[in-house]
């Protein structure tokens, strides 16, 4: 049997490659020929050729952010099994058991889901994740440059701003370039949300209108629309364009619909609507939200930090994790960094704790888990929580309970110590490049969270293994 497939996820880092490797290994065990294309943070890798697709018996689509219309056309008429990338690792062992009944024929105009009905090709969350995935490089690159500029100043370099007759300093220029990433991350997010729904004709209007909604000088507001503007404008323009494209104008004018009429009319309508209504309204809401977050009593912030931390650790890159991550990430454009500080702490814990637990109590883990421990520790240290998934699948109750409780405590400590993270980075080493501060309290919180996580894993899994052993004996 010949299998081809595509894997992708919103961040394009861990799930994309882990699932591809898992599918490849399973196919090799079964003696199948396999070629998997990964659509990750580095772009498309191992791109499938037309010949490979044509020869394939089945196509596996493990998706976290959907596929483009062009990709649909590539697989038109093929037997396809589609499932969320977050579920793929759980089902890879049984994926090929009844593949004939799971698969459905894909048509370029519309993806038909398989019999499991769990696959999600379209939906609000997938559109939002498409926007987040596009915004990540902007905030990562911009955040790193801002950190570099800050470090240059700390090392004694001048921080002279541009002014008439004054040459700006290098540190100021580097920081200013970095700030462009934060300026454009929100318009890019809105543009790609719209693009995921309405395709290319929606991109430019959504980008320009979202930029307008966040330009306080143009709107005359105290605050920009922030991530809320990106979400509302992106979804609104996306759906507007999606249905606008169905208008029939005749052979003479139809070619102009996507290239000229849709962008022009959409920009005109939503530009005016945003200037006079949406922009000021969303600015008012964002100002209220930020005021509310600042006004929360410290005790309630700690409780909220516990909840956010527990959510981040609960399903290790799944929908609960993504919801908490999206909340924290979306506040970066408003220069609120302490909620994203929780992300920098908690996402390190589950994989690193699982690895350390295998070293301390190797008899509690399988040979495969022990062999994967070094990789899980290293990848986990760079803020990819997904390497903890195989450990959780092997013993879900104790591992998830340990991760969630430790993550919640670490999240509460992160808020208590006001740990701030200005952009995604390289995890454990973020303080070294200026992305996370205060550095000492960051490492203290990680150390406490890690120690608790390891302790909980050992205690909970030990009890769970004893209980499982008793069940086996009684049977």
From TrEMBL:
Leading EC class: transferase
Q: Which UniProt keywords apply?
A: Cell membrane, Kinase, Membrane, Phosphoprotein, Phosphotransferase system, Sugar transport, Transferase, Transmembrane, Transmembrane helix, Transport
Q: Report the Pfam families cross-referenced here.
A: PTS_EIIC (PF02378), PTS_IIB (PF02302)
Cellular component, GO annotation: plasma membrane
Q: What is its EC number?
A: 2.7.1.191
What PROSITE patterns does this protein map onto? PTS_EIIB_TYPE_2, PTS_EIIC_TYPE_2
Q: Where in the cell is it found?
A: Cell inner membrane
Q: Which residues form the PTS EIIC type-2 domain?
A: 124-464
Its main subcellular localisation, reduced to a broad class, is membrane
Which PANTHER family does the UniProt entry name for this protein? FRUCTOSE-LIKE PERMEASE, FRUCTOSE-LIKE PTS SYSTEM EIIBC COMPONENT-RELATED
> What's the name of the protein?
PTS system, fructose-specific IIB component / PTS system, fructose-specific IIC component
Q: Which organism is it from?
A: Loigolactobacillus rennini
